[in-house]
Amino acid sequence: MPDAILPPDIDEEPRKGELPRPYAARLAREKALAVPAGPDDIVLCADTTVALGRRILGKPADAGEAARFLTALGGRRHQVITALAVRRGDRLWTRESQSDVKMKRLSDLELNAYLAGGEWQGKAGAYAIQGAAGAFIAWISGSFTGIVGLPLAETAALLQAAGYPLWRQP
After folding, report:
1. 3, 11, 47, 90: which one is catalytic?
2. Would the pLDDT of 1 be above 90?
């Protein structure tokens, strides 16, 4: 169990020409390095990015941008990249999980109802597969938990590499 949840304060704007996978990896690393921690503390940070080709679909600023994101994703495959960074002392372990997702084309009713529900707020690509938008997802290839935002198999491996005992005798 975490002892503390300390949101890092970093600039999450993509750099000019930055591609989605390196962008997510950079943010996870920067977050891990920004969190104040003691030499034996373990810091876990992640960043999830939705990519439509080379285009990064971040957290929409408003419902209009969310509608544009969801309309662009409709009927097309896109990638969800979650980058992880685990820090203990001056050591840093990183990994990325990339999954392919296909969202169906949304009717006006589906789009407007989803936007009215507000679930799109604060979500990369304007959706959360574990919520109402799960009904819009026709197909995935990869890690469901990575699409949610924390790929568990990869997270477990990094925590163990950092010396965190995941499994204890009863």
Report:
1. 47
2. no
Q: Evaluate whether residue 7 is within a structural domain.
A: no
Would residue 36 count as lying in a domain?
A: yes
| 90: annotated active-site residue | no
Domain that holds residue 45: 20-161
Q: Give domain status of residue 168, yes or no.
A: no
pTM (2 decimals)?
0.92
Strand partners, 95: 84
**With contact defined as beta carbons under 8 Å apart, do 71 and 120 qualify?**
no
Tokens of 157: 């491996």
Choose among 61, 80, 70, 138: nearest CA to 106.
70
Using only C-alpha atoms, the chain has a radius of gyration, in whole angstroms, of 17
Distance CA 13, CA 11 (A): 6
CA distance 21 to 19: 6
